[in-house]
């Protein structure tokens, strides 16, 4: 692909933006940015019953969240009736399309006959009817659909960027409808007319559209236009190799956003759905993707969308973020989910203070509570953590008591001084690091998994840290006395 490309993303606003649609949008956007071309956004809203303004707004919002800005549009097919009418008039005048008066029963009979003959159930109307017959049918109140007169015998070849040449035998392609009996254009007509009218040079879309492509190419050629280049990108499957759906957890951009993923990590993961740079690189910033992306490296085999991989990738992107950007993004997300408000005054300050601690361990913002939620509640030791402390009650009392005594003597209470003091104390007591340090952390956080020991202590400050130490010691002592 050389020279600036004009590409488009053409969603139907009939639902939210799915992972598959977002991947199509991203690949097109990357081609536009990589080649210095133009990314057109076109809303295919001719299905008036299923298209909604809410879905349209949601798709635009998700594209914006992902950072996929468009240069032209959004164009709405519902507002382009004149363009289609002009194309339809041209196709009628040349005889490329014809009025088909066949009833549903007649069409079904054709399909049944074909099946009985072991032929593909391909439907064609009667192309030639004399004007008197047409007048009679119209007088009966029949309104025709207009079908494209597919040239038979014949074939159409797609030179596909991903799949190589793909040949379609016209015997397998029905005389597809281009104008419905109510006068509205079908998808195959509108998409073909638009791709020509908008000067689209490359159409990249999901493999599920490949059977539409020869039809759209026929329409374009009948209009005297040369079809663009095509690339049909592979299906997206879940980890179980079944077609990706809601069942797999997050299947839409909205779900991923709500699950606390970063847009740049989602973009990174989407890029790798069918595309690769080499066999090993998995982390890309958006700028790196723009530089590296090429359709030549899109694979034919289905791509697997793996949420667990996205988690890991998200963690890597979080750690790549500058500290201040990370804090703002974290606070923004926790505010948007109501987390901060629910934790009352001072919560935002605590979140900010804890941000550097969680940055090292977090894989999505949604993990924040698991790692740092203990900061916002009175000490509460979770059962699994209590089990660790009570495996050897006496030992726990000794090491926690030893740690507390040492910390109480500190003139200055910072992560650094806490670290030095506890490290020294564990040597003095002849303890292994883990056996000594884990109880300290559990004593104040109550959690088996949390932010690091020294920083957590420093974050609490001596007063609160000691109070938590004492509360844990008191509980252990009670258990010891009862034994
Ligand atoms: N509106 C179609 C869809 O959402 C896209 C068609 C195309 O890319 O040509 O599946």
Task: Characterise this structure.
This protein has 483 residues and is mostly helical. It has four domains: 6-79 and 236-307, Rossmann fold, CATH 3.40.50.620; 81-191, Glutamyl-tRNA Synthetase, Domain 3 (Glutamyl-tRNA Synthetase, domain 3, Alpha-Beta Complex); 321-376; 383-482, Arc Repressor Mutant, subunit A, CATH 1.10.10.350. The chain is 50% helix and 11% strand. The chain has helices at residues 19-35, 53-66, 81-94, 104-116, 131-139, 187-197, 213-222, 253-258, 263-271, 286-292, 307-320, 323-336, 339-342, 347-359, 368-372, 383-390, 393-408, 415-428, 433-445, 453-482, and strands at residues 6-9, 38-43, 72-76, 97-100, 145-148, 155-160, 164-169, 177-179, 202-206, 229-233, 236-237, 303-304. The strands form five sheets. It has a three-stranded parallel sheet with strand order 1-2-3. Strands 4-5-8 form a three-stranded antiparallel sheet. A two-stranded antiparallel sheet has the order 6-7. Helix 1 links the parallel strand 1 and strand 2. It starts with 5 loop residues before the first strand and ends with a helix. The model has no long low-confidence stretch (mean pLDDT 95).
